[in-house]
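Write out this protein's structure.
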Amino acid sequence: MIVIRGVTIAGKLTDIDLAVKPGELVAVVGSRGSGKTTLMRALLGQHPLDRGTVTLGGCPAGTAECLARVGAAGEAWGLLDRLTVWENLRTFVRLWGVPESRAAQLLHRLDLGGRRGVRADRLTPGEAARLRLARALLHDPPVLLLDEPAGDIDSESAAQIAFTIAEEAEAGKAVLVTTFGDPRILQAASRVCYLEGTLLMEPAVRLAAAGGGRTAAGPQAGAAPAGAAPAEVAPAGAAPAGAAVGARPESQPALPPRPVPHVAARKGDRVLLFRPEEIRYAYARDKAVYIETGEGPCGVSFTLSELEERLAESGFFRSHKAYLVNLSYVKEIAAWTRDSYSLILKDGEEVPLSKHRAHELRVRLNW
């Protein structure tokens, strides 16, 4: 368990309160320079506190006993650059006294088995991020502290990292993650807090919406300290206790309908507008992005990640680093081999499904 009480560092953090229970994944969102890395360093005992206390796994932060219970990794630290992937893990295998089979298992789990002999400073950013996570998990600690684990990396690596840390939380670890706002991390999180202006805030009101709860943004008015329990409100349209059915207090106006996220696309010399349900899938090719519709392929000005964010609530799924598919058009999930999959659409077209996305889709569909 992670317990932070009244932590203050002059000019960086002010009276921070936060508790993360075993089995929780808490995301701390903040802009660059907001103090996220300072908070992580304070939790690891690497930055002195002006006031407050921190305990991790029941031990005071910074003690040898505490560090043995924590797996930590940062956006730009945690690796020995001149060593290979395998040498990095084997070094920490010896330090922690765990079997080498544990390192081999993590390499396979994070799709680094084919990169064993590559030096860490020659890995892609996504591969390096996955290796940092593997190193943090090596001794199977009950607490994970991850500073921007999915920052500035390829989409497929970010999804794999989010899926892996969600699995670790489900297995009973207390997980605290900082992020600029990666949608995959936020989707996996049990709770989301906001660190801005030295203050850590958590939304105080959760508005229920079709398809799941949507959390009101913070830390503006209506937000509460991150250690406080959020207040729950009835779903939109439900009558408050003691009120007549159909009555709505003047202080609770109806929420406006969400606008349909139309997508503008170019087909020859025409600019067309498409509703989400008219798009079968989108794909990136030759540094351009296209959507497949009844009009055929049409070019868009969005990146695939921007399009994914725009269509996040319309049933779209990132099946591959270069493909975004509308699940309502999927007829079959085809497994060709143990690690080879694709999605067969209702019109017979085939869309790639990477093995890591297959894991994510399996969880999403309870398949």
